[in-house]
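In keeping with the milestone schedule agreed at the kick-off meeting, the structural modelling team has produced records for the first pair of proteins. Each record is given below as a sequence line and a structure-token line. The laboratory manager (R.T.) confirmed that both were archived under the project's standard naming scheme.
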Amino acid sequence: MNERYTEDETVNAVTRLTRAQLHTFIELEIVSPIQTAQGFVYRQVDLVRLELLCELSEDFELEDDALGIMISLIDQLHSVRGDLRAVLTAIDAEPKDVRGRIGAALRGARPGS
């Protein structure tokens, strides 16, 4: 699934999005479309991001600078979740005794343990 969307298709697909908002989000670098010879194209992940930005902007009345901070925090959280998933997969591949020692070490390292 490698679908690309033009600016017109993007504005039509994200019902709350205006062309002016789209250009603002690009200028603020909180949406990063792909530059092609025909102009910008957007991926499905960009459309989902734009839906979220419209929701945060309209429903929660976040200003542009707050949107940038919020989306940065969401990106960081998403990255950390991916890292955690990779660590858990690596731990799961270890022998049972190693997994047990790692589990015990983690329990001991948690605040309030």
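The second protein of the pair:
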Amino acid sequence: MLKSVAAYVPDKCVDNSTFEGLLDTSDEWIQKRTGIKTRYFATPEQKSSDLGVKAAQTAIERAGLSKEEIDLVLVGTLSPDYLAMPSTACTLSAKLGLENTPSMDIVAACSGFIYLLATAKAFVESGMYAHVLIVGAEKCSSVLDFEDRSTCVLFGDGAGACVIARTDNPKESILDVKIASNGAYADYLYTPRTLKQSAFIESCDQSQTLRMKGNEVFKLAIKTLLKDVEDILGANNISPEQITYFIPHQANLRIIQAVQNQLAFSQEQVVLTVQKYGNTSAASIPMAMNEIYEQGKLKKGDLMLLDAFGGGLTWGSALVYYGGD
């Protein structure tokens, strides 16, 4: 079951007017195409693990556990602390004060949280682990080209964390998770630099920043997400009316609204935070979940439909009963 949820947002709020002096853009242009009004950026000194550990500590506390009761740490991020190693999960575990707990990253970009959920569910249901900490932690600002208005206005920094635990109550369970990928579309959303390239690259070299075929991603995301949601609902004989909250990856308001309208979800069912936080990649779903938790709206037994699409290309969906207090 999903036993707890928490989030952490860095202090610096960046509104759309910030980009007007840097790019050929405006607040009106950004809001019309993305729905985004603000996003939050970490300080230069902060790493993804620094954001993640804040969310993780709160998630563990809300689960009523000690850190020593965490059996496995999984982190999803497209903005790791280090290019190759160690994993962000290892550095986050160290900052939590864990010494012997297995920890690993799962790289699925904006679909990262669904992949984390699928992996944690498998470990817990196998009986191998009792409590798995999953963390989506992103310093997206570290991989942005601030001369590219098609990408830099979209993303924000933040972290979200959940504790996944065993349960015998089906109404508190992670009912189903489906994940998929298609690497044939890898160049739709990627960072060009590879480890084969020389380390002696100019610091401003654009090979280190995110690239996206925006129109192609937009169209494919809507098509894929619609099918994904229809498939998981159909496989579990659940109608849209039975969903308490639809919590999609917060990438673009137009994408979310297209899926919402096709499936006839009400405004009350759909959780939206993209206007406030922008696209926080693997952190966006738990951050949105935490938003309704802290508003007192998320109750034990509520059925959540989660859905995400990201670089890889990757995508996934989940039906989750909230099992926390």
